[in-house]
């Protein structure tokens, strides 16, 4: 397994629409292994393949608490086929928008169909943080980031600050 680097905003690659996977083969499983290791290393609870520059419709997640046993989840070609009418607000963050957090409203529950790590068809009804996280990750597959839901002013400010951080990094990463 390899830790890959996570792309951060502003980066046009993050705006690409990811392509469906034909079938889950060794290559996709290796990618999921790398994504999971990259996500754990960055202390995230989810990661979409496009965040490491690969435009495939693949997501990994683990919303277990630190003290709990790890519970990795893998979603290939996920589709939401049912959304709750009721919304819930969560303070969201994103590994591609480092150090910024904001409240986002999303449907509280949703049903997702997907292929698992072994390419088997699965369905899941998600609620709470799991539902929020799946929807956040599925937005990445469409090139959407949570800051797109904020006011134009807030979003512009965040993107400006992130591009300045890229110009003058206070740490040189080799
Ligand atoms: O680590 C993450 N935490 C998080 C918190 C609230 C809502 C969504 C997320 S996903 C994020 C990791 C990430 O950027 N996934 O794309
Ligand atoms: Ni994200």
Overview of this structure, please?
The chain is α+β, with helices and mostly antiparallel strands. It has a single domain, classed as Alpha-Beta Complex (Peptide Deformylase), CATH 3.90.45.10. The protein has 3 helices and 7 strands; from the N terminus they run αβββββββαα. The protein has helices at residues 26-41, 128-141, 152-167, and strands spanning 46-48, 58-61, 73-83, 87-94, 97-107, 109-115, 121-127. Strands 1-2-3-6-7 form a 5-stranded antiparallel sheet. A two-stranded antiparallel sheet has the order 4-5. The radius of gyration is 16 Å and the shape is globular. The chain binds ligand GNR and nickel (II) ion. Residues 44-48, 51, 90, 92-96, 132-133, 136-137, 140 line the site of ligand GNR.
Spell out the blueprint of helices and strands.
Layout: H1 26-41, E1 46-48, E2 58-61, E3 73-83, E4 87-94, E5 97-107, E6 109-115, E7 121-127, H2 128-141, H3 152-167
Antiparallel strand pairs: 1-2, 2-3, 3-6, 4-5, 6-7
